[in-house]
Amino acid sequence: SAVISQKPSRDICQRGTSLTIQCQVDSQVTMMFWYRQQPGQSLTLIATANQGSEATYESGFVIDKFPISRPNLTFSTLTVSNMSPEDSSIYLCSVELAALEQFFGPGTRLTVL
Amino acid sequence: KQEVTQIPAALSVPEGENLVLNCSFTDSAIYNLQWFRQDPGKGLTSLLLIQSSQREQTSGRLNASLDKSSGRSTLYIAASQPGDSATYLCAVGPDSSYKLIFGSGTRLLVRP
Questions:
Q1: Segments in chain A below pLDDT 70
Q2: What gap in Å lies between CA A103 and CA A72, rounded to an integer?
Q3: Residue A41 has what pLDDT?
Q4: Could you give the CA distance from residue B107 to residue B8 in angstroms, rounded to a whole number?
């Protein structure tokens, strides 16, 4: 398995501001993923982040709203830009290890007022 | 488009019972299926991963089965304990891209 940490664990933000969420893994991984879990809902994939290339976004998610960085094989950031109350969610990063199993970070709980 | 459904949405059982959680998917051409556990306000813990060529996987009191032809997976929990109380999510990997499509989860409460 992998040890995955996220910062911050939670935050309360004002409408119109941006928040950058960090994801750190204790081993080098090729692929990292960012998911969103809206209140009472299941997880939805936002984008896939490979080191050295642009992130690949899923339908309904755009780079201007959710810019992602992947500077090396152990780290990634997701920014939630120009936030509105509808962005209040838990944001989770995950990594794929050998045998295609995915492991998730503890999540960042975001509340937008 | 692959859709994943979990039934029931919520389940309450007394401690010690054996129980089965169900997951169904609409497209049988999957790459793998993974079961997770999520505690309130927390991230996901991987429980079991079943490859498309496998029929079941076991870990301790947990057993997951996969029937691709019928589009079903079950998670069997033996001798349930209050510590098993959590939301259980199944997720389908539709192909080798590592993307996961999640079901809506089953919220389990094991009463002491």
A1: 98-99
A2: 18
A3: 86
A4: 8
What six digits make up the tokens of A69? 């960085």
Chain B interface, best mutation among A43, A57, A88, A89, by max B CB count within 10 A: A43
pLDDT tens, residue by residue, B38-73: 998 788 999 999 999 999 999 999 999 999 999 999
| Beta strands A68-72 and A56-57, pairing class | unpaired
Segment B76-95, tens digit of pLDDT: 999 999 999 999 999 999 88
The shortest CB-CB distance from A42 to any of B31, B89, B97 is to B89
Report the chain A residue with the minimal C-alpha distance to residue B49: A101
**For residue A108, what pLDDT is reported?**
96
For A98, the 3-state DSSP assignment is helix
Identify all chain A residues contacting B37, using CB atoms and an 8 Å cutoff: none
DSSP string, chain B: ---EEEE-SEEEEETT--EEEEEEES-S--SEEEEEEE-TTS-EEEEEEEETT-SEEEETTEEEEEETTTTEEEEEE-S--GGG-EEEEEEEE-STT---EE---EEEEEE-
